[in-house]
Amino acid sequence: MKPQWENLYSQMLVDINRCKTLDLPETERAESCYGIAINYWHRVKTFFMVKLNYSDAEEIEFFKIVKPQFTSHIEYYLIMNQGLLFIPENLNEKFEYWQVGVERYQRFCDRNLDFIRYYESTSKVYDADYFLQRNNRLVVLPQERIFEDNDCRTSHDHIVRGLLANRMYHEYAGKRLNELKPPDPNSYSGHVPPLNGGGTAQPRSSNS
Fold first, then answer.
1. Residue 65 in contact with residue 206, Cβ under 8 Å?
2. How far apart are CA 164 and CA 157, in angstroms?
3. 0.90 surpassed by pTM
4. Do 208 and 2 contact (CB within 8 A), yes or no?
5. Rounded distance, CA 118 to CA 99, Å?
6. Buried b (16+ CB within 10 A) or exposed e, 92-125
7. What is the pLDDT of residue 205?
8. N or C: which end of the chain has fewer CB within 10 A?
C-alpha cells in the first residue's frame, strides 16, 4: 500500500490493539473495535473520493488491496460479536460451537473458490472486471449496508473483505477452542487450512 494508506492502517491497528486491552467484557471490546474500524473506513473513503480521476491501475489497487484491509476488520468484529453473543453454557456444546467457528473459514473458501484462486494467483486478467467501479453491476444487499460503502464499491472487493475477515475469525475461534481442552498433538495450531483442490488462501500484500 502507498504511504498514505499504510499510515492510516497502522494507526487503526494501534487504536484497535489499545481497545483490546480495556477492562471491559469481550462483547463490549468487540463493539468498540468495530467502531474504530468503521471510523477509519470513513476516513479512507473520504480521502479516496476527494480525488475525482484515478488511473485504472490506481483504482484497482485501492479496491483489491487497500479497501479490504480496512473493511475486513469491520466484518471480523461483526462476526466476533455475533459469535460471543451465542456461546452455549454446556462444555461439550461450547466445543462444538467453536469447532463450527473454526470451520467457517473453509466454508467461505469453498463458496468462493474460483475467485480466491484467482485473487491469490499472479494473474491480473480479470482485475478490471472485479475491481473497477464502472464494471460493478451488483445490487447492494440489505445486509451489506452496514459497511457504508454503497457509493464506493466494486463487484468483488467484498469477497476479499470476507476472505481476510474469516481468516482472522478462524484464528480467533481456534484459540477459543484450544482454551476448552488441554494442549495435545491434534489441537488447533493456528494454521490456515489449504483450499480444497490445493493452495492456501492468504491475504495479499502490495509493495506499491
1. yes
2. 11
3. no
4. yes
5. 28
6. eebeebbeebbeebbebbeebeebbbbbbeeeee
7. 44
8. C
pLDDT at residue 154 in the model: 97
Which residue is listed with cell 464502472?
Answer: 134
Q: What is the largest CA-CA distance in the chain?
A: 56
Q: Within 13 Å, how many C-alpha atoms sit on residue 132's CB side?
A: 14
User: Domains of the chain: which residue ranges?
Assistant: 3-178
- List beta partners, residue 103: none
- The string of DSSP codes covering 140-208 is PPGGGGGG--TTS--SSHHHHHHHHHHHHHHHHHHHHHHTTS---TTS--SPPPBPTTS-B--------
Within 10 Å of residue 15's Cβ, how many Cβ atoms?
A: 17
Going from the first residue of the chain to its last (208 residues), give the mean pLDDT of each consecutive group of 10, the final group possibly shorter.
Answer: 93 98 96 98 96 93 98 98 95 94 98 98 97 92 88 96 98 95 57 57 45
Helices within 64-156 (DSSP H only): 67-85, 91-111, 113-120, 127-131
Residue 156 cell numbers, joined: 468483488
How many CB atoms neighbour CB 9 within 10 A? 17
Q: Terminal CA-to-CA distance of the chain, rounded, Å? A: 6
